[in-house]
Amino acid sequence: MIDQPGSSILQVKNLNVFYGTFQAVSNVSFYVKSGEIFGLLGPNGAGKTSTLSSVEGLLKPQSGEITVAGFNISKQPLHARANMGVQLQATSFQPELTITEIIKLYAGIYGVNLTSEKLNALLQDIKLEEAASKKFGQLSGGQQQRVSLVISTIHDPILVMLDEPTTGLDPQSRRQLWERIEAIREKGHAVLLTTHSMEEAEAVCDRIAIIDHGKVIATDTPQGLIDLYRNDPAVISASRKGKITLEDVFIGLTGKTVRA
Amino acid sequence: METKIPKPSDAFLSLMRADFTTQWRNRRSVIMSLLVPIIILISWKGLIAKLGGAFVFSIALTIGLTSIGMMGYAISVARDRDKGVFQRLRVTPVPTPFIMMSRLLVQLGMIAVLTLGVFIIGYRVDKIALTPAGYILTFITAFLGGALYLGFGQMIVGLIKNAETVNSTTRLVYIAFIMLGMFGELSDNMEFKNIIHWSPFGTVKTILAAAMQPVTWNNDATLALVATLAYALVFSFLGIKWFRWN
Ligand SMILES: Nc1ncnc2c1ncn2[C@@H]1O[C@H](COP(=O)(O)OP(=O)(O)OP(=O)(O)O)[C@@H](O)[C@H]1O
Ligand SMILES: [Mg+2]
User: Fold this and answer.
1) Does the keyword section mention Glycoprotein (chain B) (predicted)?
2) Distance CA B148, CA B185 (A)
3) What pLDDT sits at residue B1?
4) A81–chain B nearest CA distance, Å
5) CB-neighbour burial class of residue A51 (10 A; exposed 0-12, middle 13-18, buried 19+)
6) Distance from first CA to last CA of chain B, Å, rounded?
């Protein structure tokens, strides 16, 4: 694929989302290419989930154009959704169903033929063979996260969207998730994730967009952002150890106040 | 880019399998909703001679249908909406109406189970036997009445967003229906009786009672049928219109 928005898997153009009169997303534009991990960073309430929800077609933006694999989400939602795998920030599966049943449900929905060997391999891969007949609610946070990722990638989508996938994970699980995300990139697929962790953004994201009060205030590679803003007075004042980090840039650009 | 959308029928079958499994795992609450009609059939055994089999049967069935529409349908929809179960399903390439249709089909299955259960227990315990036409007509009217209460349940989850509030509201309405239904018609106050008669409880009860003995089907039953259909349409229309997935 060529390095330009035209060949991107996901394109978001001039997105505006309102809740009543409150504007949660304001003129947001970005793209994600194949073989790329793109991070959306922003404080609480910045508009990350609202942006993802628009891409998923869960909410109708007031204006803007979104295409997934060339399909416009409002005109061909089913085609667009068939090309994306999604992990929502607050997801739950039917609490009565077992892990196996949930995986089978989603395989069926995506038209994936899941043989019992395939199912076992999937469960083995996420080290949950033992838990196959447990209910989702009986798993630990990290285990739930693994199940959730397996389901969002069960149809091998070319775009995977993860809303704060590593929140609440221990360092081991987090590393493991990073590896899984990188494996998706190795296949040439695209990943869009949101995170509050600067370490994570630096470690796995090829490019990031910093979003605040619904607006994208910077888009670049993590190192590119550091280089670009290392002389910004607000960034320098945010720096704690002399060395400018991505977190310093983030704080410098989005301010020090905690969001309501 | 070439994209194959998964076959809708496969997706629908998967949804239905999951929804039936869910219902099966919840069999305790299912049994609870069958229990009240059964208790009525058994405990009112002595009253059948006085009130007539159709009267007792139709009350038992109507109460069962109420509980399916409200406890079976509304409460589970409100709960899953609260938990984000629907949102997760909605980001898949399954047409959104399928998600609800699958749930409704499960409840129609429940209506069939309830009706059969009432027939069997009525026959065994109360020695009530209908003509073949009576059984068939009762089955059909049970689905119509069920549609009314499913519509009512839909209206409740459309109006009330909070799962806890849906829970308490449906329980309250359910108990109110039982009270009104069982004691309303025995009251002496004509005006009160009339209101009950044309309420969503009364119309369903009337058509069920008439369907059990097709020879007794009269003008009143036809009007009750029209009213039942009108209620069902209005409730479903409003319920769908007001419904929000999150
Ligand atoms: N359904 C809603 N109704 C009204 N306001 C909403 C709704 N959902 C989100 N908002 C508001 O829109 C803004 C953006 O919310 P959003 O969930 O997109 O933020 P976020 O960047 O994902 O935050 P977080 O990091 O906390 O997940 C917030 O101010 C939030 O309060
Ligand atoms: Mg969010």
Assistant:
1) no
2) 20
3) 52
4) 5
5) buried
6) 32
Cβ–Cβ gap B18/A101 under 8 Å: yes
ipTM for the predicted complex comes to 0.90
Q: What single string gives the DSSP state of each residue in B111-135?
A: HHHHHHHHHHHHHHHH-----HHHH
Expressed in angstroms, the distance from the first to the final Cα of chain A is 42
Distance B136 CA to ligand 1 centre (A): 53
DSSP conformational letter for B92: S
Q: Whose CA is nearest to atom 24 of ligand 1?
A: A44
Could you give phi then psi for residue A199, rounded to 5 degrees?
-60, -45
Q: Write down the residue that tokens 């038992």 correspond to.
A: B60
The stretches in chain A having pLDDT less than 50 are: 1-3, 5-6
Chain A residues near residue B94 by CB distance under 8 angstroms: 109
Q: Which of A12-21, A50-59, B89-98, B175-184 has the lowest mean pLDDT?
A: B175-184
Domain locations in chain A as residue ranges: 1-83+159-220, 93-156, 222-255
CA distance B246 to B238: 17
Which are the contacts of B179, defined by CB distance < 8 A and separation ≥ 6? Answer: none
Which residues of chain B does A108 touch, with a Cβ-Cβ cutoff of 8 Å? 10-11, 13-15, 17
How many other CB atoms sit within 10 Å of the CB of residue A148?
22
Distance (Å) from the alpha carbon of A67 to chain B's nearest alpha carbon: 12
Dump pLDDT digits (tens) for B117-150: 999 998 988 888 899 999 999 999 999 999 999 9
Closest Cα of chain A to B232: distance in Å?
Answer: 28
Pick the closest to residue B113 from B150, B75, B142 (CA basis): B142
State in words which class domain A1-83+159-220 has.
alpha beta
How far apart are the CA of A53 and the centre of ligand 1, in A? 10
Choice from A15, A19, A22, A54 to test ligand 1 binding pocket (greatest atom count within 8 A of CB): A19
